[in-house]
Design goal:
Elements: H1 5-9, H2 11-38, H3 40-51, E1 52-57, E2 64-65, E3 71-83, H4 85-88, H5 95-102, H6 106-113, E4 122-128, H7 130-139, E5 144-153, H8 161-164, H9 176-180, H10 182-185, E6 190-196, E7 202-210, E8 218-219, H11 224-240, E9 245-252, E10 258-264, H12 277-280, H13 283-286, H14 296-306, E11 314-316, E12 321-324, E13 327-330, E14 337-339, H15 340-345, H16 349-357, H17 361-370, H18 397-404, H19 413-419, H20 421-424, E15 428-429, E16 444-445, H21 449-462, E17 480-490, E18 493-507, E19 514-521, H22 530-548, H23 559-571
Parallel strand pairs: 2-8
Antiparallel strand pairs: 1-6, 2-3, 3-4, 3-5, 6-7, 9-10, 9-19, 11-14, 12-13, 15-16, 17-18, 18-19
Helix pairs in contact: 5-6, 5-7, 11-22, 14-16, 14-17, 14-21, 16-18
Length: 581
């Protein structure tokens, strides 16, 4: 090959070109050295800043446990799928494949992303099952990412659903204990700095900014064994009597702790589709009712406290009706001549009315108010209703009469159960709690011990032969309580065929350990009295619960003898002149 004549003719041109190239090379080398040696640290910082991100480090809520440490709510790690639509749009041909892995239709995926293609973050599925999350990850589609989160799991399902409640998809408490103690259970997310690559993947953890703080565990007073027992028996009773619903509340007579609280219908907090408002409402604390004859023991206690009656006072309830103003008070049967205990044992409205009218209105109100009617229980339940107990200055004779046998006031099942704590603890009323309590809180004295002991013996007679609550008996244990059958209202009037059956009581009578209320709402069929419908629920639950707790039996088998002696003593007495009601 012959050399270019121009370079041969003009050797200076060649030198010039070589000199320019050499200078350019030196300039590039100098710039490179400058970038590395002088500006290297600055450029590295700027590069990292463009890829450096601060991300949250998720943490889990505290566990909810029963009094014995059995889990009622726990958090499990799950994956949520989110996408960067700007990236995902480049892989549109794989959208159908992604939809199948997520368990949704391609049309649904299109709808989720419609109008959001200019965003950088969109959730596709929260709390995905581990298998599906792995399938999505294996697809390797650009713009699709997994994010670690925590999902709440409830091992006991609907057995404790009304007490424990549930959280939403962001793990924030929505109902029950999850809501009431959300501040205690909720953890604090941490934060860290990471470097992401161009596809948004974390390639390096740079530093921890704040360590995550898990939520604190919470011990409830609930005993999971007793909770299941109450749930099983209540559900069976509601089904047997084709009832609209029902509630059971069981308290520790010594501490006021809630050992069991169940409602029907129930719901499963693990199933979001089951969270229907009418079903997840905790009826034991949100629904009020007129308690009917279950308040007659308090009417008697008020009379004993006021000194207008004594335990052996004779009351003539014949002929089973009593005119009070415009009201005619009626008994189911003519109870005839009874003592004060007979008013409770036979559930005489006439007898209760005569006792109430024998004392000032303030005396009756003082007892009703003292045992907690119309007031919060202190249990810290979301949505708790306080019920209604009106000012005694507004009471006329008619109102006082109806109050004596449980109409004209509203209570919740929890309030009614708490009120019976006074009969179980010699007149003291401990505050109710759903948290495990260490030690005993006797509360405030609301009734004198002698009056309480008299009434407690009367409550025991309700389960004896001739009483209205014989079906409340528990094998091996002496029980006491009171039946109630309250008419319900419809369109502003009392309906003739809608009832609430109740039984409220305590056991064992010799040294009360449990207080319990059972309500059956609108039982169908011929059986609707509290003694027929609610009393058996009480007996089955309390008897088994006392055995579970290891409480020694106290029934010596002397019930027939005790009842016979009581009947003989009553038959030997006649109402003295001016000595009866």
């Amino acid at each position: 090959m012959r050399p270019d004549p121009a370079f041969v003719a003009y050797p200076g041109r060649r030198l010039f070109v070589l000199a320019v190239l050499s200078l350019l090379t030196l300039a590039l080398l100098g710039r490179a050295l400058g970038l590395v040696l002088v500006d290297g640290e600055f450029l590295l910082t700027q590069g990292d800043a463009r890829a450096l991100r601060t991300v949250a480090v998720p943490t889990h809520r505290g566990m909810i446990l029963d009094r014995n440490g059995e889990p009622l709510a726990a958090s499990t790690a799950v994956e949520s799928v989110w996408v960067n639509p700007k990236e995902l749009v480049t892989a549109r041909e794989r959208w159908a494949e992604l939809a199948r892995a997520l368990g949704m239709s391609a049309k649904h995926l299109e709808q989720l992303l419609s109008g959001r293609l200019n965003r950088e973050f969109v959730y596709l599925r929260r709390h995905l099952e581990p298998g599906r999350a792995e399938q999505v990850k294996d697809l390797g589609i650009a713009g699709v990412y997994l994010q670690r989160e925590y999902r709440r799991y409830y091992p006991t399902g609907e057995v404790t659903g009304h007490v424990v409640g549930f959280t939403d998809v962001d793990d924030v408490g929505q109902e029950g204990i999850e809501l009431a103690y959300d501040h205690w259970l909720r953890g604090t997310a941490g934060a860290k700095r990471v470097i992401r690559d161009g596809r948004g993947r974390i390639v390096e953890d740079v530093e921890s900014i704040k360590a995550p703080q898990p939520g604190r565990d919470l011990y409830l007073s609930i005993d999971r064994r007793l909770q299941y027992l109450a749930y099983r028996e209540l559900k069976a009773a509601v089904k047997e009597h084709r009832a609209r619903g029902g509630s059971v509340v069981m308290l520790d007579a010594r501490t006021g702790e809630v050992l069991a609280m169940v409602n029907q219908p129930a719901y499963n907090p693990n199933n979001t589709a089951d969270r229907v408002g009418a079903r997840f409402r905790n009826r034991a604390v949100t629904d009020v009712f007129e308690p009917g004859s279950t308040v007659k023991p308090f009417t008697v206690a008020a009379g004993l406290e006021a000194g207008t009656i004594r335990p052996d006072t004779i009351i003539d309830t014949s002929p089973g009706t009593l005119k009070v103003g415009r009201l005619t008070v009626r008994d189911v049967h003519n109870c005839g001549v009874v003592d004060v205990g007979g008013v409770i044992r036979k559930s005489s409205n006439v007898g209760a009315t005569k006792i109430a009218l024998s004392m000032p209105a303030q005396a009756l109100w003082r007892v009703f108010h003292g045992v907690g009617f119309g007031q919060p229980t202190g249990g810290d339940f979301p949505g708790e209703v306080f019920g209604i107990l009106t000012d005694p200055k507004r009471w006329g004779e008619v109102h006082r009469a109806t109050l004596s046998y449980g109409y004209g006031l509203n209570v919740t099942a929890l309030q009614l159960a708490r009120s019976y704590l006074a009969f179980a603890s010699d007149g003291f009323l401990p505050p109710v709690t759903v948290l495990r309590r260490d030690g005993v809180d006797r509360g405030q004295p609301v009734l004198s011990a002698p009056s309480v002991r008299h009434v407690r013996r009367m409550l025991e007679s309700v389960a004896d032969e001739g009483g209205t609550g014989t079906k409340a008996r528990a094998v091996g244990y002496r029980v006491g309580g009171k039946t109630g059958t309250a008419k319900k209202t419809a369109d502003g009037h009392y309906a003739s065929n809608r009832y609430l059956a109740l039984f409220s009581g305590l056991a064992p009578v010799s040294a009360p350990r449990l207080v319990m209320v059972a309500t059956i709402d609108e039982p169908s069929g011929d059986a609707y009295y509290g003694g027929q419908v609610a009393a058996p629920v009480f007996g089955r639950i309390v008897g088994e619960a006392l055995r579970i707790l290891g409480v020694p039996p106290d029934d010596t088998g002397a019930v027939p003898q005790r009842l016979a002696l009581h009947s003989d003593a009553l038959a030997a007495r006649t109402p003295p002149a001016g000595g009866g009601l």
